[in-house]
Protein backbone atom coordinates (compact mmCIF):
# COMPACT_ATOMS: atom_id res chain seq x y z
CA UNK A 1 0.00 0.00 0.00
CA UNK A 2 1.13 3.54 -0.79
CA UNK A 3 2.65 5.56 2.03
CA UNK A 4 0.94 8.87 2.79
CA UNK A 5 3.03 11.69 4.22
CA UNK A 6 1.49 14.93 5.48
CA UNK A 7 4.02 17.68 4.86
CA UNK A 8 4.68 20.48 7.39
CA UNK A 9 2.58 23.13 5.59
CA UNK A 10 -0.44 20.79 5.51
CA UNK A 11 0.14 19.91 9.18
CA UNK A 12 0.08 23.61 10.02
CA UNK A 13 -3.07 24.17 7.97
CA UNK A 14 -4.79 21.24 9.70
CA UNK A 15 -3.76 22.60 13.10
CA UNK A 16 -5.33 25.96 12.18
CA UNK A 17 -8.53 24.29 10.97
CA UNK A 18 -8.79 22.31 14.18
CA UNK A 19 -8.25 25.44 16.26
CA UNK A 20 -10.92 27.28 14.28
CA UNK A 21 -13.48 24.51 14.69
CA UNK A 22 -12.79 23.88 18.37
CA UNK A 23 -12.22 27.39 19.72
CA UNK A 24 -13.63 29.91 17.27
CA UNK A 25 -16.77 27.97 16.41
CA UNK A 26 -16.68 26.18 19.77
CA UNK A 27 -17.64 22.96 18.04
CA UNK A 28 -15.36 20.09 19.11
CA UNK A 29 -17.75 17.60 17.50
CA UNK A 30 -17.17 19.23 14.10
CA UNK A 31 -13.44 18.94 14.71
CA UNK A 32 -13.79 15.25 15.57
CA UNK A 33 -16.00 14.59 12.55
CA UNK A 34 -13.56 16.31 10.20
CA UNK A 35 -10.56 14.42 11.59
CA UNK A 36 -12.39 11.12 11.19
CA UNK A 37 -13.36 11.99 7.62
CA UNK A 38 -9.81 13.12 6.79
CA UNK A 39 -8.21 9.96 8.11
CA UNK A 40 -10.77 7.77 6.34
CA UNK A 41 -10.06 9.54 3.04
CA UNK A 42 -6.31 9.24 3.61
CA UNK A 43 -6.73 5.48 3.91
CA UNK A 44 -8.54 5.45 0.55
CA UNK A 45 -5.85 7.68 -0.88
CA UNK A 46 -3.22 5.13 0.13
CA UNK A 47 -5.13 2.46 -1.77
CA UNK A 48 -5.83 4.47 -4.93
CA UNK A 49 -3.59 7.53 -5.15
CA UNK A 50 -4.27 8.19 -8.83
CA UNK A 51 -8.06 7.99 -8.66
CA UNK A 52 -8.59 11.65 -7.82
CA UNK A 53 -8.52 14.42 -10.46
CA UNK A 54 -5.48 16.42 -11.42
CA UNK A 55 -5.67 20.04 -10.34
CA UNK A 56 -4.66 21.16 -13.83
CA UNK A 57 -7.73 19.39 -15.26
CA UNK A 58 -9.99 21.16 -12.77
CA UNK A 59 -8.44 24.61 -13.09
CA UNK A 60 -7.02 25.06 -16.60
CA UNK A 61 -4.07 27.40 -16.66
CA UNK A 62 -3.09 26.98 -13.01
CA UNK A 63 0.69 26.95 -12.66
CA UNK A 64 1.68 24.14 -10.30
CA UNK A 65 5.35 24.52 -11.25
CA UNK A 66 5.40 21.23 -13.15
CA UNK A 67 4.10 19.11 -10.26
CA UNK A 68 1.02 16.97 -10.89
CA UNK A 69 -1.14 17.92 -7.93
CA UNK A 70 -4.40 16.12 -7.35
CA UNK A 71 -7.47 17.20 -5.40
CA UNK A 72 -9.40 15.16 -2.88
CA UNK A 73 -12.57 16.58 -1.34
CA UNK A 74 -13.31 15.90 2.32
CA UNK A 75 -16.47 17.53 3.62
CA UNK A 76 -15.93 21.29 3.10
CA UNK A 77 -12.18 20.85 2.82
CA UNK A 78 -9.72 19.97 0.09
CA UNK A 79 -6.56 17.92 0.23
CA UNK A 80 -4.02 18.87 -2.43
CA UNK A 81 -1.40 16.19 -2.92
CA UNK A 82 1.24 14.85 -5.24
CA UNK A 83 1.75 11.15 -5.95
CA UNK A 84 5.33 10.02 -6.55
CA UNK A 85 5.00 6.82 -8.56
CA UNK A 86 8.67 5.90 -8.29
CA UNK A 87 8.65 5.93 -4.48
CA UNK A 88 4.97 4.95 -4.27
CA UNK A 89 4.35 7.83 -1.86
CA UNK A 90 1.67 10.47 -1.53
CA UNK A 91 2.78 13.88 -0.30
CA UNK A 92 -0.05 15.96 1.10
CA UNK A 93 0.94 19.56 0.45
CA UNK A 94 -2.17 21.45 1.55
CA UNK A 95 -5.39 20.98 3.51
CA UNK A 96 -7.63 23.99 2.93
CA UNK A 97 -11.26 25.05 2.91
CA UNK A 98 -12.89 24.49 -0.46
CA UNK A 99 -13.71 28.21 -0.81
CA UNK A 100 -10.05 29.21 -0.64
CA UNK A 101 -8.36 30.23 -3.88
CA UNK A 102 -6.05 27.37 -4.84
CA UNK A 103 -4.07 29.56 -7.24
CA UNK A 104 -2.65 31.54 -4.30
CA UNK A 105 -0.91 28.40 -3.03
CA UNK A 106 1.42 28.08 -6.02
Shape: globular
Question: Which sheet architecture does the biggest sheet show?
Answer: 4 strands, mixed
Query: Count the strands?
Result: 4
Mean pLDDT value: 95
CA radius of gyration is 14 Å
Strand order of the largest sheet: 1-4-3-2
How does CATH name the architecture? 2-Layer Sandwich
Distance between the termini: 29 Å
Helix content: 25-40%
Overall tally of structural domains = 1
Continuous helix count: 3
Look at the structure and name the CATH superfamily. Answer: RelE-like
Low-confidence stretches are: none
Estimate what percentage of residues fall within beta strands.
25-35%
What's a concise summary of this model?
The protein is of the alpha+beta class and 106 residues long.
Reconstruct the topology from this structure.
Blueprint: E1 3-6, H1 8-24, H2 28-47, H3 55-58, E2 69-74, E3 77-84, E4 89-97
Parallel strand pairs: 1-4
Antiparallel strand pairs: 2-3, 3-4
Helix pairs in contact: 1-2
Describe this structure in words.
The protein is an alpha+beta fold. The chain has one domain: YaeB-like fold. Helices cover 39% and strands 25% of the residues. The chain has three helices and four strands; from the N terminus they run βαααβββ. A hairpin with a 2-residue loop joins strand 2 (69-74) and strand 3. Helix 1 (8-24) runs antiparallel to helix 2 (28-47). The longest helix has 20 residues, at 28-47.
Amino acid sequence: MTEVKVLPKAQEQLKNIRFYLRFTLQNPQAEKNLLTALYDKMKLLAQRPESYPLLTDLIPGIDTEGVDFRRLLVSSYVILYHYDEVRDMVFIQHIIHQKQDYTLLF
